[in-house]
Write a structure and sequence with these properties.
By secondary structure, this protein is mainly alpha-helical. Helix content is 79%, strand content 0%. The chain starts with a helix and ends in a 6-residue tail after the last helix.
Length: 190
């Protein structure tokens, strides 16, 4: 359980540097350069992620249940994951009207993903994991607004939106039919 909680804290902690200490990154980059910052950041994030995954099973059984979700919540989670996957793709795809509208599509995707999984899972470990990500994404979005970061600019055409929706939908189908069970050992629909 220590590995799970420590990994979650390290992973979300390194992703919270700009929230908690906005100038740390700039000072580090100013002293050592962009490459070393990315290396440091990546190593911490990877270490936290590996510890989180390693400790997950132990934490799942050590912490027990909070509630037994009804079956319809799993179906709702499947439906919610479609816009989450589309938002995730929008974060990394070429400019689109959707990306501009969502402003920070990665944070939107994380919030939807976390909420969907909170609804569909009843173990305490899920409450900690998905609840932690949901709270982090909300706090990060508030932080981004306060920093005054510019919003993405919408392109004039719809090509980027078509790409985002098609790839996001295909990713959702692959996750639904095969990848979720393969990666996590849990079929999304029973």
């Amino acid at each position: 359980m220590v590995a799970f909680l420590g990994g979650l804290l390290i992973f979300l902690g390194i992703h919270s540097v700009r929230i908690a200490a906005p100038n740390v990154r700039e000072r580090f980059v100013g002293s050592y350069g962009e490459g070393p910052w990315k290396g440091f950041y990546s190593l911490f994030a990877l270490f936290g992620f590996v510890a989180l995954i390693y400790g997950y099973q132990d934490a799942k059984f050590a912490l027990g249940f909070v509630w037994a979700p009804p079956i319809w919540t799993r179906h709702l989670a499947v439906v919610l994951m479609l816009p989450a996957m589309i938002a995730l793709v929008a974060a990394y795809a070429p400019p689109s009207k959707l990306k501009a509208r969502l402003k920070h599509p990665m944070l939107v995707a994380i919030k939807i993903w976390a909420l969907a999984h909170l609804l569909a899972n009843g173990f305490t470990v899920h409450l900690v994991l998905f609840g932690g990500f949901l709270v982090w994404a909300i706090v990060d979005r508030i932080s981004v607004k306060r920093r005054g970061e510019p919003d993405p600019v919408a392109p004039s055409g719809w090509g980027g939106d078509i790409i985002v929706v098609v790839i996001g939908t295909l990713a959702w189908v692959v996750l639904l039919l095969w990848a979720h069970e393969w990666l996590f050992g849990v079929p999304p629909i029973v």
